[in-house]
Amino acid sequence: MIAVIDTGYLIERQLPAEGQIKGYVTDSVVNELKTVGSREYLEFFSFMIEVRNPSEEYVARVKNDLRREVNSLSDTDIDVVALTLELKDEISEMWVGPNNPEQEEVVCLTNDNGIKNALSRYSSYEGPGFSTRKYKTRCYGCFSVFSENLDFCKKCGLRTLTRITVADTENGEVMFFKKGYQYKKPKTLKNARGVELRSAGQREYIQHQKMMKSKMNRSHKEIGF
Question: What is the layout of strands, in order, in the sheet containing 22-25?
């Protein structure tokens, strides 16, 4: 998943700890990180986040498309919206073939209602319900759905999990599935010693989980989480 990250997500420290995204922040977002803690938080995730600014073309496009709302959007908001759209268009234009079978998903990680509303105007990007979309894990084997990220299904125990998009609507939660989706066997999961991890109850997997949790806790303490 490719994500454009807004200031609030960094200040509130809401990035997924699993590191399953390729993130982008603009210079204007970085400049809004005023505290040492928020800058250290960004630095901690520097392995998956890089600084990139939108092109003047997309900034002008956003200002023109949203000219009635532009006064309520800050320069940073406009940068975030413009970069999200630019990345989405770049991905959409990529050739889809054997070496690139699926288009990457582009999202904007923000708590700002102004940015959410602005992006919802571009139906080609997310369409209605953009501001309420979230992700869950679904087992392709037994069709169970879970809110947390997992390596193995909690019901059937198989490593047949996929991520799906869901949205809260007036009629309840709605799931979105890719048209023509075909399940792909996930990569083999191994621990630090190269032992293949086959189930949640496997001794090596339990030890692996404890080690990863301990490592993450130590990292958080080092930067004052």
Answer: 49-51, 22-25, 2-5, 106-109
- Paired with 52 in beta bridges are none
What residues contact residue 119 under an 8 Å CB cut-off, 6+ apart? 81, 84, 85, 108, 125, 126, 130
Is the CB of residue 126 less than 8 Å from the CB of residue 116?
no
What is the rounded CA–CA span in Å between residue 56 and residue 5? 19
| Bridge partners, residue 169, by sequence | 172
pTM value? Answer: 0.56
Cβ–Cβ < 8 Å for 153, 160: yes
Q: Residue written as tokens 């191994």?
A: 190
Per residue in 127-173, pLDDT (tens digit) is: 333 444 567 888 888 989 998 878 888 898 888 888 777 766 666 67
CA-closest candidate to residue 104, choices 13, 6, 21, 12: 21
**Rg of the chain, C-alpha, whole Å:** 19
Euclidean distance between CA atoms 137 and 102, whole angstroms: 19
